[in-house]
Write a structure and sequence with these properties.
Blueprint lengths: L2 E9 L4 E7 L12 E7 L4 H12 L9 E9 L2 E9 L6 H7 L6 H20 L2 E2 L8 E5 L5 E5 L6 E2 L12 E2 L9 H5 L5 H17 L12 H10 L12 H10 L10 H4 L12 H7 L40 E2 L11 H12 L28
Antiparallel strand pairs: 1-2, 2-3, 3-5, 4-5, 6-9, 7-8, 10-11
Helix pairs in contact: 3-5, 5-7, 6-10
Family: Belongs to the protein kinase superfamily.
GO molecular function, one term: ATP binding
Organism: Nelumbo nucifera
Length: 380
């Protein structure tokens, strides 16, 4: 495909997102008149190539951002790898939260949660874990039938479920994700599997209800304490009393500390908070009773993942990090020691002393969206 690069709509440490317009003669049935193109130097494009591979496998799911293909270009003497993505001019759920004044009405929260769950069901059924579900990565798009909805985007941190953890040169493993949305097991045991996406969904849904992050963290120096609270404490985010009983119960199912007992995307889609057919809470419990042991779930592979990405920044959160920085953790001790105070303190110290430059600033994604009418195209 011949195309023209437009103005940037986002940038990170290793990749940029720009508008892309197919040149005349390209098939309009295959490519829309305006796309987003995510680009990186070919020598540093392994994560972007993995993202393209995953999106190709997930093609056909209406709740996942569509990828139209990829190519290589030479620009300013550099070889550039590009993937072409569906463009979402409205932006993300985080953008909508700002526009709406900080929170959504419950009917919209229900609708958005249902769409995200459908996307997660597809991701997990195909053997992947997203690892970075948050409002900034949920884009507002149009579905093939012409209706509007949200789609899961940014698979830069995604991994194959059950993937073995690879060591870095120093013999350490790395966490992946955004601290405010990390699950207890991802912090305490470096487990990044499907239940971690459900925990992050609960954080995102609660943020839509509250208009602010689920966890309170007012200053950058509180991040280590926050990670300790999430990974090793008994506390879960506070759910507002004014939320409906169905909404409170839904979020509670996402915030079950034990990932083996946390509800799956398939189970949550039958919950009355998001079910399209009205179902009572009592009927929901009959259809999908809250699991009491690991035997109530499909077999989970609690293998540790390999990580090569950073902790993304969050524009709505004071807890942010450069996208080129990684939370680095030493190899965990035996799992039967993971609940001991000595282990907890050791583990969180490893997180705290990792390669994190500055939690209070961000060199991560910066939204610089502009109206389509103001796009000034430059030659490819």
């Amino acid at each position: 495909m011949e195309w023209t690069r437009g103005k940037p709509v986002g940038r990170g440490s290793f990749s940029t997102v720009s508008l892309a317009v197919p040149r005349s003669g390209c098939s309009i049935t295959k490519f829309p008149p305006l796309m987003a193109v995510k680009s990186a130097f070919a020598s540093k494009s392994s994560s972007l190539r993995m993202e393209k591979e995953i999106l190709t496998h997930l093609r056909g799911c209406p709740q996942i951002l569509h990828c139209f293909g990829d190519d290589l270009t030479v620009e300013n003497g550099n070889q550039i790898y590009n993937i072409f993505l569906e463009y979402a001019p409205t932006g993300s759920l985080a953008d909508l939260l700002k526009i709406s004044g900080g929170l959504f009405v419950e009917s919209d929260v229900r609708r958005y949660a249902r769409s995200i769950l459908r996307g997660l069901r597809c991701i997990h059924a195909n053997g992947y874990v997203h690892c970075d579900i948050k409002p900034q990565n949920i884009l507002v798009c149009s579905y093939p039938d012409g209706s509007n909805g949200v789609k899961i985007a940014d698979f830069g941190l995604a991994k194959t479920a059950g993937n073995e953890k690879r060591r870095t040169e120093g013999g350490v493993s790395e966490l992946r994700g955004t601290p405010l949305y990390m699950s207890p097991e991802s912090i305490a045991r470096n487990e990044h599997e499907a239940p971690a996406d459900i925990w992050a969904l609960g954080c995102a849904v609660l943020e839509m209800v509250l208009g602010k992050p689920a966890w309170r963290c007012r200053a950058s120096e509180e991040v280590v304490a926050l990670l300790y609270r999430i990974g090793f404490g008994e506390e879960v985010p506070e759910i507002p009393a004014e939320l409906s009983a169905e909404g409170r119960d839904f979020i509670e199912k996402c915030f079950i500390k034990d990932p083996r007992k946390r509800w799956t995307a398939e189970m949550l889609l039958n919950h009355p908070f998001v079910a399209e057919d009205t179902v009572s809470l009592s009927e929901c419990e009959k259809q999908s009773p809250s699991p009491r042991s690991a035997f109530d779930f499909p077999e989970w592979n609690s293998l540790r993942s390999s990580v090569s990405n950073s902790v993304d920044s969050s524009s709505s959160s004071p807890v942010s990090s450069s996208s080129s920085d990684s939370l680095t953790c030493c190899e965990e001790e035996e799992k039967d020691q993971s609940d001991s105070p000595r282990y907890s303190a050791s583990r969180i110290r490893e997180v705290a002393t990792g390669q994190v430059s500055n939690w209070s600033t961000s060199d991560g994604w910066v939204t610089v969206r502009e109206a389509e009418s103001s796009v000034s195209l430059v030659g490819q």
